[in-house]
Specification:
single chain; about 260 residues; mainly alpha; 2 strands; elongated
């Protein structure tokens, strides 16, 4: 809930800050909704960055407190970009007077506008150091991205350990999980090849079979997602329990009594 409140507060504060440029002749309500719309576009851009990085449960990576803070910063950047485009329209967008177009450019182009490097400082040691708001903004965004990664890693470790604590047969587990990839209709050949390579690599690692199975579960969770992973683990354990029993001889009837 704190992340959600941060997102809402960020959008509202950025929108109110953008109202300072209302003296340029734009109606207050038009400027307000332009800033809000630009903030919404910026928030969508930030959410898409998270979704592209965390494939197993992208929406859960967004809605945790770190993800919402990441999105809220991008929302504020979008609103701030809209304010800059409005305040300095003669210099930045001299041919664009449409506030809706400014909102689109501000929201989706905030990365370029607000994260821009004003100039490059050439130090005596020969290195170049960028000067501008991008330094501060990108530092905060990287920090939040690491927080999201650690949060997701903790949840993934707990889920895989709980699901595969009793799975110690790596060979048959790998065979079953490889076969279960056929249930995915939109899985790319690269993703299938990636799982196959992980299996082959772990076959040669001198780890205990249970640890190799857990590592395989981590890789499979990335592709399957949490709900599908849980269901496949149930099926995997049933398969291991069934295949562990020796088959009855063909045509064998009940054993005679003494």
């Amino acid at each position: 809930m704190s992340g959600a409140r941060s997102l809402i507060a960020g959008i509202l504060l950025a929108a109110v800050a953008a109202l300072e440029v209302w003296s340029l002749g734009l109606h207050r309500s038009t400027l307000f909704w332009g800033a809000v719309l630009s903030a919404a576009f910026g928030a969508g851009t930030g959410a898409s960055e998270i979704i592209s990085r965390y494939r197993d449960e992208p929406l859960r990576a967004v809605v945790n407190k770190y993800g919402l803070n990441y999105v809220s910063i991008n929302a504020m950047l979008g609103a701030a970009a809209f304010g800059l485009l409005t305040r300095y329209a003669d210099h930045l967008l001299p041919t664009t007077t449409d506030w809706f177009m400014r909102a689109i450019i501000g929201g989706f182009g905030a990365m370029v506008i607000v994260r821009s490097k004003l100039f490059i400082f050439h130090a005596e040691d020969g290195k170049d150091y960028p000067i501008g708001p991008a330094i501060v903004i990108e530092t905060f965004l990287r920090m939040l991205d690491r927080k999201i990664d650690r949060h997701r890693a903790s949840m993934r470790q707990q889920r895989v350990f709980t699901a595969m604590a009793s799975v110690s047969d790596f060979e048959r587990s790998a065979d079953y999980l490889t076969a279960s990839l056929l249930s995915f209709q939109n899985l790319s050949q690269d993703e299938k090849a990636g799982i196959a390579k992980i299996i082959e690599d772990y076959k040669t690692v001198a780890w205990p079979a249970a640890l190799k199975s857990a590592a395989l579960g981590m890789a499979f969770l990335t592709i399957a997602g949490e709900e599908n992973f849980d269901q496949i683990m149930i099926s995997l354990k049933a398969y291991l329990a069934t295949s562990a029993q020796p088959p009855s001889p063909a045509g064998a009837g009940p054993q005679p009594g003494p």
